Amino acid sequence: MSQSYNRGLIEDFGRWKEFSAGMWAWIFHKFTGWMLIGYLFTHIAVLSTAIGAANGQMMMVGGEEVNVFTGTIQGLEGLFIVRVLEVGLLAVAVFHILNGVRLLMVDLGIGLESQDKSFYASLILTGAITVASVPTFLSGVGF
Amino acid sequence: MAERYSSFTPGGTGWLLQRITAAFLVVVLAFHFFQLHFVTHAAEVTFAGTQARMENPGYFLAMVLFLITAAFHGVNGIYNALVNQGLSGTPKKVVLAILTLSGLALVAQGIYVAIVMAGGSIS
What we know:
Subcellular location (chain B): Membrane
Largest sheet of chain B: none
Number of helices of chain A: 5
Protein name (chain B): Succinate dehydrogenase subunit D
Low-confidence stretches of chain B: 1-9
Number of helices of chain B: 4
Order of helices and strands of chain A: HHEEHHH
CATH topology of chain A: 3 helical TM bundles of succinate and fumarate reductases
Number of strands of chain B: 0
Radius of gyration of chain A: 21 Å
Pfam family, one (chain B): Sdh_cyt
GO molecular function, one term (chain B): metal ion binding
Radius of gyration of chain B: 18 Å
Keywords (chain B): Heme, Iron, Membrane, Metal-binding, Transmembrane, Transmembrane helix
Strand content of chain B: under 5%
Helix content of chain A: 55-70%
Low-confidence stretches of chain A: none
Strand order of the largest sheet of chain A: 1-2
CATH topology of chain B: 3 helical TM bundles of succinate and fumarate reductases
CATH class of chain B: Mainly Alpha
Mean pLDDT of chain A: 87
Structural class of chain B: mainly alpha
Oligomer: heterodimer
Structural class of chain A: mainly alpha
């Protein structure tokens, strides 16, 4: 008794005006996933300065000579734009975590009828955690 | 055509592993963010502090597992997103090869860095 019908290409981003809560959750999950894996490669690249530091490589930061690992991280952390990007990274990671938990529950069949509400809850909680973290993330560069 | 009696198609294994790594990553990523932004502020991270943390075997092991699961989860996620988007045939195989090599290179470099941080040396 199953019926098949052509629902068009679901993964057609040109249909964004037709998107429902579940579709937006799917889009945001992909978008944040791409950002997180991109960041992971960058993160390991920055942390690789530990190899230089272990070999005694030094650099100057603010007129002070420090090892290249400490200098790279503190140099980056001294930049306002890096702190803002870190807040963005937190927002992206928190959403991906919360929506990921939502997806695990959907997979297990828990609360399927409120999957749209749990998407909105993920968004609101992400916003709240991000805003609450701003003072910690921007301390020393404006706060 | 031979019937398969498994619930998991080859793609299904990727799906299951994605969920298992997700459950692990939820906990470790939250810990990682909390540890390096709220306990130790990122701006106060020094090589000495990193060495002290990485010399703890439990922390070292957690970070290496974190790297491996995150690299797998990310690369597997990208691959599935692209297949879902319609990637097939030879491009699919090429993308899989590139993603696998990138993931392995990331894990290899990350483990090398972790060992150096913990006071070991390879060269």
